[in-house]
Design brief:
The structure holds 2 protein chains of 2 kinds.
Chain A (H helix, E strand, L loop, with lengths): L5 E9 L9 E9 L5 H12 L18 E4 L2 E4 L13 E4 L6 E3 L2 E2 L2 H9 L21 H8 L9 H5 L1 H5 L6 H11 L7 H9 L12 H5 L6 H18 L10
Parallel strand pairs in A: 1-5
Antiparallel strand pairs in A: 1-2, 3-4, 3-5, 6-7
Helix pairs in contact in A: 6-9
Chain B lengths: L10 H32 L10 H9 L1 H28 L6 H25 L2
Helix pairs in contact in B: 1-3, 2-3, 3-4
Classes of the chains: A alpha+beta, B mainly alpha.
């Protein structure tokens, strides 16, 4: 460690269910350089200060969506948040809000995985297609309709940002709705009626009160708030017009 | 979250009334505040007897005037009820059936009173 080595305090929310009654904070002094991310800071802690610290990470370049944490109270990917932006103040690192903590910074994401499965996140063909019929063709407009919603990396920052999900965890939530919308507006897909049942349900889009923080924190510039609000309109149209044109989605 | 237990939400009714009221209040609210709260009391822009009793009575007896007054009162109320109900939720009060009945009930009662009063005035 050279003399002008900068040292930043990282406050970490710790929780080991086998010995802790409740989460508590622990402060570490971490030497850092200007190119170090918060993720590298917690990796330093694990490597040199306390090997029992648990957190998820993989790609280090905002692609895998594993390293989401609350950094000074904001849902962020720790790999693209830099220690230099907090120095000389202390930086606070906690597990993502609104999820049960499994251990330290690791959350239990089972609830989200169930939601992800429930939206059927794959193309449901309108009709069976043979190989001989060749590939699907799409115009640039047809691609534009869903492309931004397909960038979701399931990092769950939007769920940590959503006050309504925080109050009611059965709400399908921003990312799952954005992905649902991604398939519903895909010209190759024929599964909209099935997915609309979820949108229209009590777990669906009407839990949203248009806060919009989900879209602000998204590291991939997906706009889940937009998907949710487009589907409020879709759900309302389906609710009032289902008797005029009953074709699925209505119960 | 199992698809078999999905129950259709009746929120679109309240959301539609909320949306209609929000649209109306955004478009007409400032103008109404200006007319009823500034222009008429201060006697600027509009003639001083704009909101005199005979004028207002004639307005309320007119078919279009009745519709206007009814829409303003009822939709503004439904908008406010929905906003207040969800703000309770936002500030962490787990608004249950009681809060729902109070919020939407107030809007419903206001709507019925407005309808009754407008019909009682006659045409």
């Amino acid at each position: 460690m050279s003399e002008n080595q900068k040292v930043i305090e990282i406050e970490v929310l710790r929780y080991h269910p086998e010995k802790d009654k409740e989460p508590h904070k622990q402060v570490f002094e971490v030497p850092f350089t200007d190119d170090m991310s918060v993720l590298q800071g917690v990796q330093y802690i694990k490597d040199y200060l306390d090997g029992s610290l648990s957190f998820r990470w993989s790609c280090r370049m905002a692609i895998c969506g594993s390293c989401g944490m609350m950094i000074n109270g904001e849902p962020s990917l720790s790999c693209q948040t830099f220690l230099r932006d907090y120095y000389p103040a202390r930086v606070r690192v906690e597990a993502l809000s609104h999820f049960p903590i499994e251990r330290d910074l690791v959350i239990n994401m089972e609830g989200f995985i169930e939601k992800l499965e429930s939206i059927q996140p794959y193309i449901i063909p309108k009709e069976p297609r043979t190989l001989a019929q060749g590939e699907y063709l799409q115009t640039p407009e047809q691609l534009n309709a869903y492309e931004q919603f397909s960038s979701c990396i399931n990092c769950l920052l939007c769920y940590a940002a959503c006050p309504q999900f925080g109050l009611n965890s059965s709400f399908i939530g921003p990312a799952a709705t954005a992905l649902l919308h991604r398939y519903n507006v895909d010209s190759r897909d024929g599964g909209k009626a099935e997915r609309m049942e979820l949108i229209n349900s009590e777990e669906g889009v009407f839990n949203c009160t248009a806060v919009g923080y989900c879209s602000e924190v998204c590291p991939k510039h997906v706009d889940p708030a937009n998907a949710v609000n487009q589907n409020k309109t879709n759900a309302a149209a389906d609710y009032f017009l289902r008797f005029l044109a009953p074709k699925g989605g209505a119960k | 979250m199992k698809p078999t237990t999905l129950k259709r939400s009746n929120a679109p009714i309240f959301w539609a009334l909320f949306g209609a009221g929000g649209m109306l209040s955004a478009l007409l609210g400032p103008m109404l505040v200006f007319i009823t709260g500034i222009a008429v009391p201060l006697g600027v822009v509009l003639p001083p007897d704009t909101m005199s009793y005979p004028h207002m009575l004639a307005f309320a007896k007119n078919f279009i005037g009745k519709g206007f007054i009814f829409a303003i009162i009822a939709l503004f109320l439904w908008h406010a009820a929905h906003r207040i109900f969800h703000s309770l939720h936002d500030i962490g009060i787990h608004a249950g059936t009681g809060a729902k009945l109070l919020c939407y009930g107030t809007a419903m009662v206001g709507t019925l009173i407005a309808a009754y009063a407008l019909l009682a005035i006659g045409f």
